[in-house]
Design a protein that fits this description.
This protein is an alpha/beta fold. It has one domain: Response regulator (Rossmann fold), CATH 3.40.50. Helix 1 packs across helix 5. The two termini are 14 Å apart. It contains five helices and four strands, in the order βαβααβαβα.
């Protein structure tokens, strides 16, 4: 088994997509040989907010507790040791490249690992679109993570 590597998930507010992805990866009991320390942050600098209630509910339905999540802003300290900085949309990558250019080599575009025709060029923000959309995004993130992990297994 390989040593634990840091994976950071990035979205806008760190209240929907990135905390869901963080919790989904942390909860995996898959056969992958990789061990990860996971965290998440947002480009908007929102600090200490709970995850969106629909995100909490969508993950609760999958047996994952997101109730204790608190949002945080991206910092250099958070990114410095990251093996992978997983972004949900092109604007998150642009933010990182403009403010944290040293992170370029670690950026992973999660939407590139979605099943064909399901990504719309990003992992869409479900904020304000209801629980069914959060469920759809939860499942899309889960599937994309599985595909990404499989590429690591092949490497």
């Amino acid at each position: 088994m390989s040593s634990e590597r840091q994976v950071i998930f990035i979205c806008s507010g760190n209240i929907c997509r990135s905390p869901m992805a963080e919790a989904l990866l942390a909860s995996r009991s898959s056969p992958h040989r990789h061990s990860f320390a996971v965290d998440s942050a947002g480009t908007l600098g929102i600090e200490d907010h709970a995850a969106n209630p629909d995100a909490v509910r969508a993950l609760e339905e999958a047996g994952i507790d997101l109730k204790n999540h608190r949002s945080r802003a991206i910092t250099d300290e958070l990114l410095v040791n990251a093996f992978a900085i997983v972004v949900m949309a092109p604007e998150h990558e642009e933010y990182l490249l403009s403010r944290h250019p040293g992170s370029a080599g670690a950026i992973v575009r999660l939407w590139k690992f979605c099943p064909e025709g399901q990504s719309a060029g990003e992992i869409e923000d479900p904020l304000g679109r209801g629980l069914d959309e959060f469920r759809r995004i939860r499942d899309l993130i889960s599937e994309a993570l599985e595909h990404w992990l499989n590429t690591l297994d092949d490497a």
